[in-house]
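Example 289.
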Amino acid sequence: MAEAKEFVLPPEVIEETIKASKELWKPIGKVKFRIYRYNPKEDYAPHWEEYDVEVSKGTTVLDALLFIKGEIDSTVSFRYSCRMGLCGSCAMMINGKQMLACQTRVVDVVGEKGVVELRPLDNFPVERDLAADFTKFFEKHKAVKPYIIRRDEVELNYPTGPYKQPPDEYAKFYQFTDCIKCGACLSACPTAATDYEYLGPQALAQAYRYSIDNRDEGFNERLAVIDTAHGCWRCHFAASCSDVCPRGVDPAQGIQLLKGLIIKKKLGYKMHRPAEALPAKVKPKEKEE
Ligand code: SF4
Ligand code: SF4
Ligand code: FES
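Predicted structure in complex with iron/sulfur cluster:
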């Protein structure tokens, strides 16, 4: 077997990288963070507090919040986990717009007065300070049955082989699989602002994602939730949800496609031919008693 060659970065690339990194983290001045403070269990009303933080070109809003919590005021509450735009937990209102704190550089949002204003997501109850309460949001997500439903439960639980899904079928829902459940879309939706029970862009886009999946046979079950007074017909396609989505999911498009599916269904058209299970290449395991 040929020996693996050692890969060495050319010295000029290493030098350039160090230089760029130094430039990125060089302090460039102080920014004032104006933060919404509210603990519903203890406070009579919300109030604002201000904190000055030295930032560099590379400082994100989440970096600044972590600095405030670690060095200035440990009582400031917010949610985060991955720090790379994947878990969806750090969504908040940054200068009035729904954004991920870990994906937003301070220099990109700071105004002329050197202030960044942070508050919890609109259209959500406040858990504490910048952390919103996602209980209702996840109830709505759960209500649309965001999983593949098959009528043949024996095949589902004791599969004989994979389900057939050609690339063009996968392409129909691929963009909607990118949802990280950050809640930014629901927060930006004017319908959700006036109807607390409205399912909202995240749940409805996921209803479409699973209903158009050719392995799924559960559209009738989802209809009971999506074809209602608080379902997809409440959406008037303002698309503010898609405008703020940090993953380019375009939930507004998903909702309009979902409406199309319902109309097709009511007119008696077939949605798609459900995927068949392909014969197994190896013998499936015997059912365990
Ligand atoms: S659709 Fe976009 S904005 Fe809405 S929850 Fe998913 S990732 Fe967030
Ligand atoms: S397109 Fe529909 S779901 Fe999106 S913001 Fe507008 S009303 Fe809300
Ligand atoms: S911390 Fe995970 S998306 Fe920001």
